[in-house]
Automatic annotation (TrEMBL), chain A:
Keyword flag Chloroplast: no
Name assigned to this protein: NADH-quinone oxidoreductase subunit K
Annotated Gene Ontology cellular component terms: NADH dehydrogenase complex; plasma membrane
Keyword field contains Membrane: yes
Originating organism: Kitasatospora phosalacinea
Entry similarity comment: Belongs to the complex I subunit 4L family.
From TrEMBL, chain B:
UniProt protein name: NADH-quinone oxidoreductase subunit J
Organism annotation: Kitasatospora phosalacinea
Domain of life: Bacteria
Family that this chain belongs to: Belongs to the complex I subunit 6 family.
Reactions accelerated catalytically: a quinone + NADH + 5 H(+)(in) = a quinol + NAD(+) + 4 H(+)(out)
InterPro entries the UniProt entry points to: NADH_UbQ/plastoQ_OxRdtase_su6, Nuo/plastoQ_OxRdtase_6_NuoJ
Pfam families: Oxidored_q3
From TrEMBL, chain C:
UniProt xrefs under NCBIfam families: NDH_I_L (TIGR01974), PRK06590.1 (NF005141)
Protein name per its UniProtKB record: NADH-quinone oxidoreductase subunit L
UniProt KW keywords: Membrane, Transmembrane, Transmembrane helix
Ranges for domain NADH-Ubiquinone oxidoreductase (complex I) chain 5 N-terminal: 69-119
Species, as recorded: Kitasatospora phosalacinea
A single cellular component GO annotation: endomembrane system
Pfam families (UniProt xref): Proton_antipo_M (PF00361), Proton_antipo_N (PF00662)
Annotated membrane topology: Multi-pass membrane protein
Cellular compartment(s): Endomembrane system; Membrane
């Protein structure tokens, strides 16, 4: 098997994640999809690391994880506070971003 | 080229990962999506380890699957575990456009990968010679030390931000139970305790409201959170139907003439909880 | 000796600066400083004149380079003065008559609280005029030219509290701007054509230029002269300029300002000689103005405006003579000088009359003043005799020479011009006799002034009568002195050149005709105004009279032809600006606003829509990147 298959897998997962962001309305599921996309890119980075024979790709994946953790913390806090005020976790219920 | 073992492992894991991802995408309930995603992440963790990123694999399991996904589940519980998305798309054309974009993007990525020169895999045996964790540590604390410090600052900021966002300022001390009771008597709105939820032969959960003597639902008997989520199970119809059947059976057994039986056609009159006041006004 | 030349200008200029900057400290004696400096300038002029007389004709013209003004490669402008026979003539006229007017103003403006300022402006006027006549290039001449315009603006509008004076000053300035434009264009044309605007190189190389270009330059110079000398069609400011104090009118009409146009044409003779078409235009302008001014002078009841019409007419004579070319240049200047004497004298006389009559200017309210103002009557009368060309007085000789020169032009042209000049002489005699009779003869028609005070005519103080007497002497004897042995002609000939035309009439015939015309005109006026009582209220009069009272409709003409289309143009431009340009801009804004309002609908506010557009954009970017790589 060619290790490049890992990259195809990453591309597939990334695409699924991206489609999920566009399709799902629940803010929590939306975040899960974002996490999936980040994971897909991590997989690609790990595979690149293996491809080039150095650990820089893994370092980058590591940092991605850190950033993802921070993002999830803040994002979920936002979801909670929105839910408190609007009693809904649907992103379609929040459309005040227009005039 | 990799070993056959790794190939087998890959195909298994790939099926699990993609299946999990699709499940996450397609499941109606958020909690199911979260579980599917956890499965995908576990599969990916094994993939990392298979590719020599042992440390990352462990981190993936501990941090992602262990911490982040649990955080997700926690929030899902907070928001309402059984709340399901309706499958009806509200934005016109969003679904078709999203699917088209996703397909196009996937095709582009795959085509880009297919065109790329991906034959030479060096492998990590050399880089991992003194151990994967040692290699990563060497890089993190030398070459990437600045980025590492910055991510530390980022995490602190995120933690503080989450606290600020979810923190609710209490402008006065919370009322004690005694104060609340005094307030209830003073307002004279609901002096006795709230009605308990309905407890029936088949239903004795907190999400089933009690019924009033006329057969209507006692709203106050269900907790506010459930009412807000729309997770109240109204069983009044079923109960009334069964009472009507019971009366019928009783009448048959006593041999009463049908004219003496109460006339019930369709749902019971009491169920159409129309206030008589409104009726008079309408007339 | 030549170093005195800049001092000629410097003296009055210093006076103006001193009086304007000196402040109230100079209020008590500032006018004497100004008069003394004007007299000093006259003294310098006399010294230079004496010095010039000591040299032979070929070496009389001198140039005094003061400093290099704008030294640029290919563009050399110097502040340099050229003193030749023509310049010194003007210098003596300007400073001489100017000094007398200063002296007169001391009495006339005695009670004006802004007297110091008035004298400062007078000095400025003299200085500007001296720069004009002494400049050795057109650019410096232009400086003087504008200075004269400025000073005339300040002086005509000196009584600025009167709206009429302020308007008159503005009118004079604006009309003069038209002429100034002509001069500036002429200077530019010269620079383009000759690469210089100094007199010497321009006149020396004038022959190399094509006649068309010279004609263009000549016509532009004529336009300039028309503005400054109040010739048709730019004559309208002169009558209104009477709003200024009377000494100013005397200064403008006799010594400065209006003579500048004549000077310009005579000075530029070398150009006009080579451009016959431009010369014809000059002659036509002169002849038309000659009759125009005379007709206006006949109808005016305001003594100063009647005299203004007369000035217009007399300058018309000069311009016509100047347009005749070498036949007439010298005579134009000669008439200018004699006119300077008698017109200054008459204006000062008119001022003296007004002084005695509570500033009344309407001649119909005068009458019988000769007994009350004997000196004024005598000097005014001598000026009168001089201007109508009474044999033996200065106007007789100078005007006679111009009429002769007009006939000497030859051909039909000569006849027309000569007859115009003769007709002008007759009309001149008519209106001047009218002024004389209405003012000094007949019964008293005095009217109380606005405050109900009856006038008590009295002779003016010495400071006013002395200049009048001096000028009267000039009016009587200057002409005879000039023609004696053709001395004036020979004096100017090295500068202007001279040519004898072939007149169809002998000089004596012309003289006889002119005298006859003069007598006829005077007799008619006496018949109309001396023999029968003059109505205090002006009769309605014929159509021509009414038109002449309105300055032959010149203002109406200007208003209809220039002001109204100008206003309409401005209104159109305003409309275009507010509707066209603003409309375009506003329309653009509205269009953008409308498009934005429609584009705004894309902004649904749903985060998934934004995510979709971001994702779509990423798709396009990735696709194009891959495409570019594959290409």
């Amino acid at each position: 098997m060619n290790p490049a298959n890992y990259l195809y897998l990453a591309a597939l997962l990334f695409t699924i994640g991206a489609s999920g962001v566009l399709l799902r309305r629940n803010a929590i599921v939306l975040f899960m999809c974002v996490e999936l996309m980040l994971n897909a890119s991590n997989l690609a980075l790990v595979t690149f690391s293996r491809m080039h024979g150095n650990l820089d790709g893994q370092i980058l994946a590591f940092f991605t994880m850190v950033v993802a953790a921070a993002e999830v913390v803040v994002g979920l806090a936002i979801i909670v506070s929105i839910f408190r005020t609007r009693h809904s976790a649907s992103v379609d219920d929040s459309n005040l971003m227009k005039l | 080229m990799t070993s056959t073992g790794e190939a087998v492992q890959f195909w298994v894991l790939a099926v699990v990962a993609v299946g999990g991802a699709l499940g996450m995408l397609l499941m109606k309930k958020a909690v199911h999506s979260a579980l599917c995603l956890a499965a995908t992440m576990l599969a990916l963790a094994v993939c990392y380890m298979a590719q020599g990123a042992v440390f990352l694999g462990v981190v993936q399991i501990v941090v992602y699957t262990g911490a982040i996904m649990m955080l997700f589940l926690f929030v899902v519980m907070l928001v309402g575990v059984s709340a399901a998305d309706s499958l009806k798309e509200q934005l016109k054309g969003q679904r078709i456009a999203a699917v088209l974009c996703g397909l196009g993007f996937g095709v582009l990525l795959v085509a880009g990968l297919a065109n790329a020169h991906l034959r030479d895999f060096t492998g990590l045996s050399e880089a991992n010679a003194e151990g994967n964790v040692q290699g990563l540590a060497r890089l993190i604390f030398t070459k990437y030390v600045w980025a590492f410090e910055v991510t530390g600052a980022l995490l602190i900021t995120a933690a503080v931000g989450a606290m600020v966002l979810t923190h609710r300022e209490k402008v006065r001390a919370p009322l004690t139970q005694r104060q609340l009771a005094a307030q209830r008597v003073k307002d004279n709105i609901q002096v006795p305790p709230l009605p308990a939820p309905g407890v029936y032969a088949r239903h004795n959960a907190v999400d089933v409201p009690a019924l009033l003597p006329d057969g209507t639902v006692a709203e106050d008997s269900v907790m506010g959170t459930l009412r807000e989520r729309g997770q109240v199970r109204d069983v009044s119809q079923e109960m009334l139907q069964r009472m009507a059947e019971l009366e019928e059976t009783t009448a048959d057994w006593l041999g009463r003439p049908s004219s003496a039986r109460p006339q019930v056609t369709g749902p019971r009159q009491a169920l159409e909880t129309v206030p008589t006041k409104d009726k008079e006004e309408a007339e | 000796m030549n170093s005195l030349i800049p001092l000629l200008v410097a003296a009055p200029l210093a006076g103006a600066a001193l009086l304007l900057l000196g402040g109230r400290a100079l209020d008590r004696f500032g006018h004497w400083i100004a008069t003394a400096l004007a007299a000093l300038s006259f003294a310098f002029g006399l010294a230079l004149f004496a010095d010039m007389l000591g040299r032979d004709a070929e070496h009389r013209a001198v140039t005094e380079q003061l400093y290099s003004w704008i030294p640029v490669d290919g563009f050399q402008a110097d502040v340099a003065f050229q003193l030749d026979q023509l310049s010194i003539t003007f210098v003596l006229l300007i400073t001489g008559v100017g000094t007398l007017i200063h002296l007169y103003s001391v009495g006339y403006m005695a009670h004006d609280e802004r007297r110091r300022r008035f004298f400062a402006y007078l000095n400025l006027f003299l200085a500007a005029m001296l720069v004009l006549v002494l400049a050795d290039n057109y650019l410096l001449l232009y400086v003087g030219w504008e200075g004269v315009g400025l000073a005339s603006f300040l002086l005509i509008g000196f009584w600025q509290h009167k709206p009429s004076a302020a308007t008159a000053a503005k009118k004079a300035f604006i009309v003069n701007r038209v002429g100034d434009m002509g001069l500036s264009i002429a200077i530019m044309l010269m620079f383009v054509e000759f690469g210089s605007f100094a007199f010497q190189p321009v006149f020396a190389t004038a022959g190399d230029a094509s006649e068309g270009k010279l004609t263009a330059i000549g016509l532009m110079l004529l336009l300039a002269a028309c503005g400054k000398s109040a010739q048709v069609p730019l004559q309208s400011w002169l009558g209104d300029a009477m709003e200024g104090p009377t000494p100013v009118s005397a200064l403008i009409h006799a010594a400065t300002m209006v003579t500048a146009g004549v000077y310009l044409i005579v000075r530029s003779g070398a150009i006009f000689n080579l451009a016959p078409d431009a010369q014809t235009a000059v002659v036509v302008v002169g002849a038309v103005t000659l009759l125009f001014g005379a007709v206006v002078g006949c109808a005016k009841d305001d003594i100063k405006k009647a005299l203004a019409g007369s000035t217009m007419s007399q300058i018309g004579y000069m311009i016509m003579a100047a347009g005749l070319g070498p036949i007439g240049y010298a005579f134009a200047i000669m008439h200018l000088v004699t006119h300077g004497f008698f017109k200054a004298g008459m204006f000062l006389g008119a001022g003296s009359v007004m002084h005695g009559m509570n500033d009344e200017v309407n001649m119909r309210h005068y009458g019988g003043l000769r007994k009350y103002m004997p000196v004024t009557f005598a000097t005014f009368g001598l000026g009168y005799l001089a201007i109508i060309g009474f044999p033996g007085l200065s106007g007789f000789f100078s005007k006679d020479k111009i009429i002769e020169a007009a006939f000497a032009k030859g051909g039909t042209e000569g006849w027309i011009l000569g007859l115009c000049a003769l007709l002008g002489a007759a009309v001149t005699a008519f209106y001047m006799t009218r002024v004389m009779v209405l003012t000094f003869f007949g019964e008293k028609r005095w009217q109380p002034d606005a405050e109900g005070n009856d006038p008590h005519p009295h002779e003016s103080p010495k400071s006013m009568t002395v200049p009048m007497v001096v000028l009267a002497f000039g009016s009587v004897f200057a002409g005879g002195l000039f023609v004696y042995g053709n001395s004036f002609l020979h004096w100017l000939e090295p500068v202007t050149g001279h040519a004898e035309g072939d007149s169809p009439l002998s000089p004596w015939t012309v003289t006889g005709l002119a005298t006859a015309c003069m007598l006829a005109g005077a007799a008619l006026a006496w018949q109309m105004y001396g023999r029968s009582p003059v109505p205090v209220k002006p009769p309605v009069g014929s159509l021509l009279t009414r038109a002449a009272r309105r300055d032959l409709l010149q203002d109406d003409f200007n208003h209809a032809v220039l002001v109204r289309p100008g206003t309409a143009l401005a209104a159109t431009l305003v409309w275009f600006d507010s509707r066209g340009l603003d409309g375009f801009v506003n329309g653009l804004a509205a269009a953008i606003g409308g498009i934005s309002a429609r584009l705004r609908r894309i902004q649904t506010g749903y985060v998934r829509t934004y995510a979709l557009s971001m994702f779509g954009g990423t798709l396009v970017l990735v696709a194009s990147t891959l495409l570019m790589r594959s290409v």
